[in-house]
């Protein structure tokens, strides 16, 4: 320590650096740390202590940031397209590209290899890294493009119904939480979409809780079958779709209906609904994603033959 200087409280210093990172979605330029009151010496010391990661000169990241996010920043960009969508938890089809998508600004320069910040790189140098240049609707903050830009950059890589599913997820309000996309950002999305895809925005519905609900919903809309979505039958029983006041359609997502306990609970609820006079059809993730036409044919057939409802 330099004579006459007060000792540095490293716990407080690290806490301040963490707040800077939290305000910048996990990645911040040195200027943000300096603006907070930290010195270059303190930032460098936190890096040496392992409290900060330095993907590239002048940029620091949270050590807990996902590895792919650090790689994207090291290149000179941020997570974009499929990688950004995945980081936000937006649903993607099983065959979605699994490369690292790096979103770059038009003036991006001194681009680097994603695994070596000292090595210069050009597009295509890394087989598992894809560079994406695209206009951004919102300013990037941190390690990934904004949700609205993640949706826009998804367009070339997913089918129409999965784009709608991603929009549904962005709009969905989780219990006790907030949607991924704000009202203001959502309003910017439609005019930024190609005209042929603006119907995806029109069809989006944040009540859908899984991509298979979205896919089936779009199929019903295409056939002109009217339905109610996420209907509470009683305070403790909510169903995915209710058609004609008597036909209930349930779709089983892979992650929520796989356990023995959930399997039993689903069948117990189906039996209770049947006792009340409802007809229940239950379809799996595979059936909806791989054989939607058959699923829709079954629904149409049941509707054609009537409810058979008690009372």
From TrEMBL:
Where does the DUF559 domain start and stop, copy by copy? 224-303
Keyword set includes Repeat: no
Q: Short name of one Pfam family for this protein?
A: DUF559
**Keyword annotations for this protein?**
Endonuclease, Hydrolase, Nuclease
Coiled-coil region list: none
GO terms for MF: endonuclease activity
Which SUPFAM superfamilies does this entry report, sorted A to Z? Restriction endonuclease-like
InterPro entries annotated for this entry? DUF559 (IPR007569), Endonuclease_DUF559_bact (IPR047216), Restrct_endonuc-II-like (IPR011335)
Keyword Hydrolase tagged: yes
Record's protein name: Very-short-patch-repair endonuclease
Q: What species does this protein belong to?
A: Amnibacterium kyonggiense
